[in-house]
Amino acid sequence: MTQPSIDEVARVAGVHKSTVSRALSRPEVVREETREHILRVAESLGYEINPLAAALRRKSSNLVPLIVPDITNPFFGELASTMTAAAEEHGYRLVLCVTDGADERTGAYLESMQNLYAPFGIIAPSTRIDPEALHRFPLGKRVVVVDKFADGSGVPTVTMDNARGIELAFEHLRGLGHRSIAYVSGISGTYTAAERRAAYLALAEQPLLLGEGTQPGTGKRAAEEFLALAERPTAIVAGNDMVAFGVIAELGSRGVGVPGDVSVVGFDGLALGERYNPGLTTVQQPINEMGRVAIALARNLVDNGEVGHVVLEPSMTVRGSTARVPG
Amino acid sequence: MTQPSIDEVARVAGVHKSTVSRALSRPEVVREETREHILRVAESLGYEINPLAAALRRKSSNLVPLIVPDITNPFFGELASTMTAAAEEHGYRLVLCVTDGADERTGAYLESMQNLYAPFGIIAPSTRIDPEALHRFPLGKRVVVVDKFADGSGVPTVTMDNARGIELAFEHLRGLGHRSIAYVSGISGTYTAAERRAAYLALAEQPLLLGEGTQPGTGKRAAEEFLALAERPTAIVAGNDMVAFGVIAELGSRGVGVPGDVSVVGFDGLALGERYNPGLTTVQQPINEMGRVAIALARNLVDNGEVGHVVLEPSMTVRGSTARVPG
DNA sequence: CTGAAAGCGCTTACAG
DNA sequence: CTGAAAGCGCTTACAG
């Protein structure tokens, strides 16, 4: 009842194991008749290739690291979910690597995954990653990053058009009559976060940054600053959904209602936003597509040496946290 | 600059590679002097064992599947987070397997991970798992399940004392003057979910189940049923935090305030509850401990054949979603 | 198009 | 306590 090996298949099929191997991995080099016979035998024996042995020989496995700062954060959860599906479609298995926000650990992960002959890796960083530092690791030359880099870094990336996302948020808010719009970015060293903040700064008539530079406690601080204002903005854009949640919760605990007293729009489009109170209006990232694209970029890098940069389009998901400005 | 192999280490150290292997994996059988010399050489060469080769030879790898229904759900995210940490402490790497709520896929995962010579697996199910079905897979005999089984099933489990958790929720609510307490379980076929529901039924003076049997849309349905009531309960206990979120959101969208109009307590203790609006009062599962225990149970199963069942203690995390009953 | 051989990097009886 | 050999289950030049 134990897995038959390739030798077993060869014996039963009456061919050499090298032929079995070819029939499985490079079918076109084997005579059709032979191939079909072998495949039938393999099937009947319930043969499955031993990926460990294959990887050892090939020096390339099907194990790919997914390096995230915090799998507890639903954004990375959604990313991991779509990545897993996309990876499995191509026969890869995702190995979960969590840095806990300490991107330095990325190196150790790359090293240990290199020992597992990972064909490539996926990194969703929490800070700006230095391409040079990445390239010090063999596997670091075969990663795709879910963030942006300066061009010519040699690292493939998937991102969304963040400036456009902020623009969508403004269009939505302005359509509801809002003119005075503040921004809460929370910390996050990624280019993505910087891009969103910069886009806000460029678009706002009178930019107002709330809760700047506070990490845990962004919501609390932003709410305090908001309350201290002589003239309060009528709307707040958050740099991501998690900080939007934090801000709304803190505002709520201080008696400020959303969207009654102030409208809030998030950024990311987490499914969770639908269960929030109120439902979160948010700039939607196509997270599912990001997973698919990341895997495709990685394959294209490994197979053809192409360093691709894909920028996806955002859309708006309107729920209950935004309302027409009173008056 | 490529990883040196064990042969390289042996050559430099002037010993046979079998001795190097022993110095590394069974140090006590090697003469101290020899061992230290080998270790020094290995260190200086930057030697790291090739886990693939070792696994192939030993027929046991360091790759352990974490099988979850939905990594998008923060509960499984938190579980995955602690599991990863606990696993890495012992040199294991977690392979992410998501069934998408289709527990049938568990079998396929067990099979493919068996081919990777996984030493054991961890399963967080979404339905009652049949131990018999599990045992049809070789790896199915070496899993620990994060749910409960009938005793004697031969499957190690970690859970929390769910009845005690419901009791804590009642104590808290009754302490606030609540007498009329409803329950929303949402679907979920696990023993854990059933236990919570049963505990509620046992404890409530006049049991009232809301939103029974609806899966997506539990919150909506529960809110509708709540609103249709002539005499509304003053408090609602939810079978888990995610449904608590759903209920509060739906209630909120229909103008029913929490805790103003009704108190809500969740179950699980997700970190996210702190960012909810209002902050969620909830029965706290020691999720971190569950990860650690799961790994420990697995090792104990594999090393000593012991089938352990650990039941952890809940606690209460009180936040803003519960208040004294008016009057 | 197929076979025979070598070898990926380890571990583990088996001798000595 | 250490060495030499065999072998885990594959893949891939190399012949033919």
Uncertain spans of chain A:
none
Radius of gyration of chain A: 25 Å
The pair of chains with the biggest contact is: A-B, 56 and 56 residues
**CATH homologous superfamily assignment of the largest domain in chain A:** Response regulator
Architecture (CATH level 2) name of the largest domain in chain A = 3-Layer(aba) Sandwich
- Helix percent band of chain A: 40-55%
* Named CATH topology of the largest domain in chain A: Rossmann fold
Portion of residues in beta strands of chain A equals: 5-15%
Structural class determined from secondary elements of chain A: alpha/beta
Q: Identify the overall geometry of chain A.
A: elongated
Biggest β-sheet strands, sense, barrel of chain A:
6 strands, mixed
CATH class of the largest domain in chain A: Alpha Beta
Strand order of the largest sheet of chain A: 7-6-8-9-10-12
Distance between the termini of chain A: 76 Å
Mean pLDDT of chain A: 94
Oligomer type: homodimer
Tally of structural domains of chain A: 3
Number of helices of chain A: 12
* Secondary-structure element string of chain A: HHHHEHEHEHEEHEHEHEHEEHEE
What is the number of E strands of chain A? 12
